[in-house]
Every structure is written in C-alpha cells, then in structure tokens.
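Reposting from the mailing list since nobody answered there.

I have sequence plus structure tokens for a pair of proteins and want to know whether others read the tokens the same way I do. The first protein:
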Amino acid sequence: MKGGRLLAGLWLLVAVLFAASLLIGPAGLGLMDSLSALLRGEGEAVTLVMREIRLPRALLGVMVGAALGLSGAAMQGFLRNPLAEPGLIGVSPSAALGAVIALQTGVAASFTLALPLAALAGAGVAVALVLALAGPRGAALTLILAGIAISALAGALMSLVLNLSPNPFAAMEIVFWMMGSLADRSMVHVWLAAPFMAAGAVILLRLGRALDALTLGEDAAAALGINLDRLRLGMTFGVAALVGAATAVAGAVGFVGLVVPHLLRPLVGARPSRLLPASALGGAAVILAADIATRLIAPDRDLKLGVLTALVGAPFFLHLIWRMRKDLA
C-alpha cells in the first residue's frame, strides 16, 4: 500500500512538472493561449512554440529522466551497491564520443539525425566491446572493469579530438553539447529515442523479480531458478538502450541515476522490483524540475541541464560517501 501511494504521488508530481514545463518559457505566453495552441492549434506563432519547441522538450524531459532513473536503480540492484550508476558499463562516454566525432567531422551539420545516430552507434560499439571483454559468462566485476576501461578510453579519445581540433567553433560546440541540454530539440528526437527507451524499459522492468532474488546473493538467486547469465545480458542491453538513447538526444546528464534511486530506496522497502518504477518516475520529475530551473535561474543565458544536475548531484554524492564512512567507522 505504501508503495502504491508513493507511485501515485510520483505520477502526480511528474504530471504537474510536465504541465509547468509546457507553460514556462521566455515567450511569456498566457495560460489559455498556450492550451488553445497546444490542443486546437489556434494561433500560428503560439502553436509553433507549443508544439515544436515546448512539447518536445517536456516529453524528452520525462523520457530522459525516466531512462536515467530506471537505469540507475537497475544497476544498483544488480551490483548490490547504492553507489553504482548507469555510466559504469561505458555506454554514456561512448555515446558522447560518437556525437563528438560527428560534430568534429562536420557530419552533424549534414542532416538533423546525424548527431543522435552517431551517439547511438557509439553506444552500440560500447555494448559490443563490454560483452566481448567480459566474455559470455563474465561475472559482474568483470563487466564493470570492462566498462571502466571503455569509459577511460572514450574519455581519452574525446580529449584527443578536442586537443587536435583545428576549428575553435567546432570545439566550443562539442563542449556545449557535452554539458547536456534539452533545448532546441524537436519531435524528431523524441521519435528517434522512443523505441530504444521503450525496449530498454521493458527489459529492465521484467528483471525486477530476478533483482529481488539477487539481494540474497548470487548462489541463493541461482538456487531460486534465476539465470544469472541471462540477467547480466538483459541488464547490459537494457541499460545500454536507455542510457545510449538518453545521451544521444540530451548529451551528458550526470548524477540522476545515482541520486534518485538512493533517495527513493528507503520508501520502497529496499526491494529492487519496487524501486525500478519509482526511480523511473523520480528521474522524470528531477529532469523536468532541473530543466524548468535552467529557464528560471538564467532566462537570458543558456544554462545547461547537465551543469545544474552536476552542481546538485556532486555534493549529494560526497554526502553519501561521508555517511558510508561514518557507518563503517
């Protein structure tokens, strides 16, 4: 019952923030004009703002937040570590590397989908490399070590691209994209990311029972009939689809997958199967709130979403480390 009330409250919070995201912006549109333009298409200029600018931004806020929150909860349940986060398997840095290469080579300017498609390709390469390095029956530790190695390599290659970039404007565009943002996105980005996120969400949500069993240990989970190899593959592909698609359309947005599951875990009884949907809704609420904040804090400046989430998430991460240190003392 407690979990049901929590989910209902999170659904309501997401709905309120989604509506606020649609109504808040520099255009200063009235409530009735905004609703009429969104629902009935009245007013050409207002309809353009609502349907082509604010609606895709709000939808992507929900999708990206849910993807990061759900991935973080799944990774923490799989590794049985509250400090785990979705980027551990190297998908996010590799997706960013694909986007950076597209920007540097000028391919991103050739057509609208070049940048997100390159990022998705980078995520796919990361998954293939992680699975190849970890092996068909690699343990969770091997999977994480492979992910860390790929993350380091992707980060080094991004630094190399920036270092050797002859075009300062391209380098500046790369840096801004890596900060993460939902601005200037369209429904094309929504439809591109939606299939990958939907597939990843279905995979991870179906792993709830297996993750519950895994809290007892790998041997106990195997005794309960959980196929650990299938769980590992499902986890890898599910997280890769969600995080890869989120990075492809929004850039690098950190700490959501770490902070949201940790905040909600005490409210669901520490059961991964209950934490997964709660974290998806919590992540959507956090990204929507952060994106609204970027418009309110600096309306005349392009404050990046990833910068704001890092400013809030990094101190919280340090607090987690400090509290764990005190518990172990």
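The second protein, same order (residues first, tokens after):
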Amino acid sequence: MDIEGTTTAIAFVKERLFPFAEQALDSFLAAHGATPEVAAILAEVPGPDAAATLRAWMAADAKVTPLKALQGLIWHQGYADGRLKGHLWPDVAACLHAWAGAGVTLAIYSSGSVPAQKDLFGHSDAGDVTPLLTGGFYDTRVGAKRERGSYTAIAEAMRLAPGAILFLSDIAEELDAAKDAGLRTCQLVRAADGTKPSGRHPEAADFLGVARLFGLPAA
C-alpha cells in the first residue's frame, strides 16, 4: 500500500506533516545538525547551504531520500511528544485488521522514509497498527515509485511472486510501474482527495471497495 491518497488523506500530509517539518527545520538543525545521524543526511544534500536546498526540495515536494529521511526525524519528535497523530481513513484501519486476521500479508511502500512510515502507523488515530504490517516497510531506497525495478525488488524482499502481490495507490503512474513488474493493481479514487481515475487499473473508492473487487474480507 501507498500512504498519501491511499491509506491517509492527502490533506494530512500536505497541510499538517509538510508544514510541521518546514517550520521546525531550522531549530531541528540547530539542535541536532552535529549528531552522526543528521550529519550523514546533510552530507547527501548538495550545495553549500543545506538548509536552503532542503527548503527548495520541500517547496517542490521532491521525492529525494535525504529530504524524506530528515522530515522523518522531525516528525518523529512530533509523534513522540504528542503534537502529531497519524491519519488513517476509518475504512483502512478496519480493513487492515480484517485482512491481517485472514492471513493476508500487509506491507507499505511510500516515498516517505521507513521510520516516518512506522511513526504514522504506530501513532495513528486508530492506535498502533504496525503489528498488522508484517510484510515490511519500503521507501525510495529500493528505488523510485514510478520505476518497474522497485516493485521487482520489493517482491524479491517479500519472497513472493509478483503476481501474488496487490499494490494499492492513488497514482496511476506508480500502478503502471507495478503492473509492468507483474503485480496486480488497484487505484484508490477517494472523492475527498480529488483523485482522478486513470481508466488503466481497477478502481475502488475505499478499502471496502478493494475488498469487494478482490475477494478480501470486509471490515
């Protein structure tokens, strides 16, 4: 499963998470920039002014690993002290419990860093659902989300044939890449997120619709 637009409202990411990280950037770098973990991330940021580059990436919503890693660390503080709580659509939490209970292996693939993914699902408004996600968490370190090879790598990591995996996302180009790798696909077309159906993949308005399409247990 993708996160933004699939399990989680786009508005939560755009209007809550991204502004939180941007507002906290300078104070976070001042407090933690010399730590080995943050210094290693900053070493991957090109140019003489890392903060300026990071802000430019934020403005462009760039899917680059150093930015996502740093955002994840900033969000981690917010989740830990209660300022942030991860959003999940109600149908998502209910279906995750139903699917995991039926023996379905569940996994996440998002451009957000793996630690950020775990924080969102671990501190969600439906409680800690990370124990349900036994298939693992994957980010751009396995490759870009619109590249076929990324999905091949995830299938190999999960030790599953590509055709045994169903990938859920709101982004048609991601689904195209997954389909090219042999995965089954479904586009989440949530009215609240303004998603436009591509016509190239099966479509569902929510996870209950996914359950009906693919014979999975409903919540």
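Reply #1 (J.P.):
I read it the same way you do. The chain has two domains: 10-80, 90-214.
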